[in-house]
Amino acid sequence: MADLRARDFESELQFQASRSGGAGGQNVNKVATKVELRFHVQQSAVLTEEEKALVQEKLANRINNDGFLQVVCQTERTQLRNKETCLDRFYELLRQALTRQKKRTATRPSRASVRKRLEGKKKQADKKSNRSYRGDL
């Protein structure tokens, strides 16, 4: 998988700006700084079919019913910085979705780690048993 930024996603990305919600004073009320990035996964000419399937599977919770992958940014004070943040998040999401996970090889705990764990449990059990009231024995 080559560097994603080298591919030309720019033509397939749609940006929409709107006013941010929440606190922020006059700037929030009059300036459209919130940026929403939309990317249609299935109609992409940049991604291969295999990559599209991976993105659909791994980012299913971020893809709406129309098939758009959505990234929303409203943390910065300017529209340009929010747009840059959206692009960074978009490329990071794609990178994570397209990176294959290494298969885990099963291993057994070492004898020393098992002994250490059991000693700790025994110590804790002794501590708790010493707290109990035994009455007249």
Automatic annotation (TrEMBL):
Residues 100-137 are annotated as: Disordered. Keywords: Hydrolase. The keyword Hydrolase applies. Residues 19-35 form the Prokaryotic-type class I peptide chain release factors domain. Gene3D superfamilies: 3.30.160.20. It comes from the Bacteria. It holds the Pfam family RF-1. Residues 121-137 have a biased composition (Basic and acidic residues). Transmembrane segments: none annotated. GO terms for molecular function: hydrolase activity. This is Alternative ribosome rescue aminoacyl-tRNA hydrolase ArfB.
